[in-house]
Write a structure and sequence with these properties.
The complex is a heterodimer of chains A (345) and B (274).
Chain A: H1 3-13, H2 20-24, H3 29-32, E1 33-44, E2 51-62, E3 66-70, H4 77-85, E4 92-97, E5 100-101, H5 106-110, E6 113-116, H6 129-139, H7 148-157, H8 173-184, E7 191-195, H9 203-220, E8 223-227, H10 231-237, E9 240-245, E10 248-253, H11 255-260, E11 266-271, H12 276-285, E12 288-294, E13 297-303, H13 306-318, E14 325-329, H14 333-341
Parallel strand pairs in A: 3-8, 3-9, 6-7, 7-8
Antiparallel strand pairs in A: 1-2, 1-4, 4-5, 9-10, 11-13, 11-14, 12-13
Helix pairs in contact in A: 6-8
Chain B: H1 21-38, H2 41-65, H3 67-71, H4 73-103, H5 106-110, H6 116-146, H7 154-182, H8 186-190, H9 192-200, H10 216-228, H11 237-268
Helix pairs in contact in B: 1-6, 2-6, 4-6, 4-7, 4-9, 4-10, 7-10, 7-11
Classes of the chains: A alpha/beta (345), B mainly alpha (274).
Chain lengths: 345, 274
């Protein structure tokens, strides 16, 4: 994160709820940090055609936390993840995973890490599901026999148990995605990178995967970095969100704190007293975003800030409108993202 | 450089044990075995094509050259056997690296606490073992078709042929490195296989420096072993030392090229991009 960004975020960061590890080991900050990125910078190419992919990114991610990495295309997310993994060598900066320097001592750092990278199979389709788990557990430095029970549980929880002895190539796309996730969790890696983990999954599979991911994270005290365009996934599983744009970190906070930065976007009023004349007048005076007829009731959504809300209430009182319900329409993560990134996809 | 595997298990409650190099070797070889037995079409296809081309060479050559070919058939069979071994080892390792790049599994092998070198070495060994099996079948068919007998001291043949194709394995690693950097160049790199014919038929004993090229020394020794019946321990020590030195040298050179290429790919941000 840039120095300016750091200053902007400092106050918000202190509000972040402590993770399990940071709460229990608050006296030992060093051991609670799973990933420490300092001054990461990467340019591709040279001369006038050079592209800065990552510019002075610094992050610390506590052990046991789930962090979402968001940004429009070309924001530098993938380069950042690959630089943390040592798959891209940065021009400047350092990365430590549980204290081990990824560039100086990669084997020690890799003992902690595995990754599911976007657009790749990440496993062998000609092997069965179980064979993949055993193979990648071994490659990850773990005797597969010693984690056979863990593999069985993992397969069961991800609804893969029935397909455990089938070659991955014969499975559906969603199942392949789950096998990819399972193989990443098959070893003892306690820092896991998931790039678009729910890509191609149907709604039910995505929900299952998110639920199981949360459970596994809690059980194994995993540190997870998730990159996804699916805001629901990020909101659902992440403790904290890092938003990047043009290679820089532009926001780094909890989901609720990010949402809280923006005023309520509007208010939903439900009443039996909204008639056509009143609605027409309401439209003249306020920004009516939506009108929904619910039998006897009418629900009107008015886009306004808190000052406008008082004016709206005064107006409704003058017209003797009975209020059955008043709801706040808050910004969701997608609104926050669009606001911060200027609406880039 | 620290081996990170020991750091792991303390952080997990379910008493996992670290895997050793023996388990790594078992896992890599077992995966190769599974693919071999489960999808035999590739191996069988390779054998059929090798036998077909040998048939063309043998029957076509006999029609054209008559007795001259029959007189030199033993040398042709040994050379062809070594060529099938070389092509198998070279193409399997270079193509395998290309496939791993495409599948996104290369990164996971780079990110292993064992380090990529032992994993790559074991993958190479697995490819050589597999190639020995298919080339042995091709050799048996060639001997049957031509009615030829050769001296097949298993220890001598395996050691000499193994060290010979180790140098090709080094070339395969280098080609794999080029694939990591430049991606879809597999077809061009496969053309190198035809250069192996020149190396196998090089007069290593007559022109000294040729011995230091891949395959040349091994081919000359293999001819003596399989045609003249010379046993491994009957070869002069310097001849075996050159064979071993060339094998180790090219494997190291190939690995260094691979390391350089992957490091450059990481610098350019193209490792794994396909």
């Amino acid at each position: 994160m840039t120095q300016q960004g750091k200053c902007e975020e400092q106050g918000k960061r202190e509000e972040r709820p402590p993770t399990v590890e940071s709460a229990s080991e608050s006296a030992d900050d060093e051991s609670s940090v799973a990933i420490a990125v300092e001054g990461l910078r990467k340019r591709f190419g040279s001369g006038p055609d050079a592209v800065t992919a990552v510019e002075d990114v610094s992050l610390e991610i506590e052990a046991g936390s789930v962090v979402g990495l968001l940004g429009p295309n070309g924001a530098g997310k993938t380069t950042t993840i690959k630089s943390i993994l040592g798959m891209v060598l940065p021009d400047e900066g350092s990365v430590r995973i549980h204290g081990e320097d990824v560039y100086e001592n990669p084997r020690a750092a890799y003992a902690h890490v595995d990754a599911m990278l976007e657009g790749a199979r990440n496993d062998y389709w000609r092997l069965t599901v179980r064979e993949n788990l055993r193979y990648f557990a071994t490659i990850g430095g773990v005797d597969p026999d010693s984690v056979a029970d863990r593999h069985a549980t993992l397969l069961d929880k991800l609804d893969l148990a029935e397909k455990a002895d089938e070659p991955v190539r014969s499975l559906s796309r969603g199942m392949k995605q789950k096998v990819s996730l399972a193989s990443v969790l098959a070893s003892d890696a306690d820092v896991v990178f998931l790039d678009e983990p729910t890509l191609g999954l149907d709604v039910e599979s995505s929900l299952t995967l998110r639920r199981e991911l949360r459970r596994i994270v809690a059980e194994r005290n995993l540190t997870v970095v998730v990159s996804s365009h699916d805001m629901d996934v990020i909101e659902d599983v992440c403790d904290r969100v890092v938003i990047m744009r043009d290679g820089r970190v532009i926001a780094d906070d909890t989901v609720s704190a990010l949402r809280g930065r923006f005023d309520a976007q509007g208010y939903r009023i439900t009443s039996p007293d909204f008639d056509a004349d009143l609605l027409a007048e309401l439209r003249d005076r306020f920004e009516v975003a939506d009108v929904e007829y619910l039998g006897e009731q009418t629900r009107v959504e008015v886009a306004t800030d808190s000052d406008g809300f008082y004016a709206l209430m005064d107006y409704l009182r003058r017209h003797d409108v009975t209020l059955d319900a008043v709801e706040t329409v808050e910004a969701d993560l997608e609104d926050v993202f669009v606001e911060l990134t200027g609406g880039e996809a | 450089m620290t081996d990170g595997r020991a750091n792991l298990t303390a952080t997990h409650p379910d008493a996992s044990r670290p895997a050793g190099y023996a388990q790594l070797a078992k896992a890599v070889l077992y995966r190769e075995y599974l693919v071999f037995v489960r999808y035999p079409a590739n191996a069988i296809g390779g054998i059929v094509i090798s036998v077909f081309f040998f048939g063309l060479l043998f029957y076509g050559g006999r029609m054209l050259a008559g007795r001259a070919l029959t007189d030199s058939i033993e040398g042709i069979i040994v050379g062809y056997f070594l060529w099938t071994l070389s092509v198998g080892a070279y193409s399997s390792i270079s193509n395998d690296i290309g496939s791993e790049v495409q599948w996104g599994t290369l990164e996971r092998h780079v990110m292993t606490p064992f380090g990529f070198a032992p994993v790559a070495f074991l993958k190479g060994v697995a490819k050589v073992v597999r190639t020995f099996i298919t080339s042995a079948v091709v050799l048996a068919v060639m001997l049957l078709v031509t009615g030829t007998t050769l001296q097949l001291n298993v220890l001598t043949v395996v050691v000499i042929a193994g060290l010979s194709i180790a140098s090709v394995l080094g070339l395969g690693f280098a080609a794999g490195g080029v694939t990591v950097l430049y991606k879809r160049v597999g077809n061009w790199l496969n053309l190198l296989q035809f250069g192996f014919i020149v190396l196998i038929s090089a007069p290593a004993f007559d022109v000294g420096w040729l011995r230091f090229l891949p395959l040349a020394q091994g081919s000359a020794l293999l001819q003596r072993a399989m045609i003249d019946g010379t046993r491994l321990w009957e070869f002069p020590i310097p001849d075996l030392a050159i064979l071993a030195g060339v094998a180790v040298g090219y494997v190291l050179l190939g690995y260094l090229v691979f390391q350089y290429a992957t490091r450059r790919a990481r610098r350019l941000g193209v490792l794994g991009d396909y």
